[in-house]
Design goal:
The chain has about 260 residues and is α/β, with parallel strands linked by helices. It is about 35% helix and about 15% strand. The protein has helices at about 25-30, 35-40, 75-90, 110-125, 150-155, 175-180, 190-195, 200-205, 210-225, 230-240; strands at about 15-20, 45-50, 65, 70-75, 95-105, 135-140. The strands form two sheets. The protein has a four-stranded parallel beta sheet, with helices on both faces. The protein has a two-stranded antiparallel sheet with strand order 3-4. α4 links the parallel β5 and β6 (about 135-140). α3 (about 75-90) crosses α4 (about 110-125). The protein is globular, with a radius of gyration of 18 Å.
């Protein structure tokens, strides 16, 4: 059965979220960020591929013309993003894909173009099943969210931090800040331990912060709302993550309408 022939509306009693990531820490530990969702017993998260970060499209010798449009997609995006995404979804009728990239401060003004590049690769190759894949950003990188739950940092590093008073997605370089308070900070080893302790409900408890992270959880929660007899599950998730009428990413929230 081809991907386009697959019935994405079939009842699913267990969902698998495949993670396509760009960062080293994410490649090793990102599923831990979603441990509160897996407690439901109806889903799992796994890293399925690590890719290089993409920048806004520039001229390239190897491009693929999208039939019926004026859009041109770099061949490496087809090979490294689109085709692997298609293969993953073809093998997993109840699978969904999240492409998750770090959005460092110096790339902020390119976010819309980077998002468009990722989406073009997915939309072009996935066709009718493109709604089963989404693109999201960790802003400015995954380490930012540690500062919204100081208990997680303190329990691992033995520090005495307090929760960041502002929106952690505005911290210019959270990894450097961690190294300032703990010079021996190792982003993979220590970061993985912090993610073990990180309380995402607490991170998202302030409705005016973490728009990008909240949008990731909103998308996953909307997928999980497809679970048969999911009314109570959806209500619990909405309350848990403050997903209704709260701050979402202006760039990535459009994907919520396509599920």
């Amino acid at each position: 059965m081809s991907l386009d022939e697959n019935d994405s509306n079939q009842p699913c009693y267990f969902f698998e979220f495949g993670l396509m990531v760009t960062g080293e820490t994410e490649a090793e530990h990102l599923p831990k960020l979603f441990k509160s969702l897996t407690k439901s017993g109806i889903c799992t998260f796994k890293v399925v591929r690590r890719i290089n970060q993409r920048s806004p499209r520039t001229s390239s010798k190897r491009k693929l013309k999208v039939t019926g449009t004026e859009k041109i997609i770099p061949q490496k995006d087809v090979d490294e993003i689109g085709i692997p995404a298609r293969q993953y979804l073809s093998k997993n009728p109840c699978g969904y894909l999240l492409l998750v990239d770090d959005l460092e401060k110096d790339r902020t003004n390119q976010a819309q173009q980077v998002f468009a590049r990722y989406r073009l690769a997915l939309d072009t190759i996935l066709g009718k099943q493109k709604e089963r894949a989404s693109v999201h950003f960790l802003v400015n990188m995954i380490e930012a969210y540690y500062f919204a739950d100081s208990n997680a940092i303190n329990s691992v590093l033995g520090t005495s931090e307090t929760d960041y008073s502002g929106d952690v997605e505005t911290i210019p370089h959270p990894k450097n800040d961690l190294k300032k308070i703990y010079p021996g900070f190792d982003e993979k080893e220590d970061g993985g331990k912090i993610l073990d302790h990180l309380n995402v409900e607490h991170v998202l408890s302030r409705s005016d912060t973490c728009a990008s992270l909240r949008t990731i959880f909103a998308w996953c929660s909307k997928v999980l709302s497809k679970y048969p007899d999911s009314d109570s599950l959806e209500e619990t998730q909405t309350n848990q993550y403050l997903l209704e009428n709260e701050k979402l990413s202006e760039i990535t929230k459009q994907q919520l309408d396509n599920i």
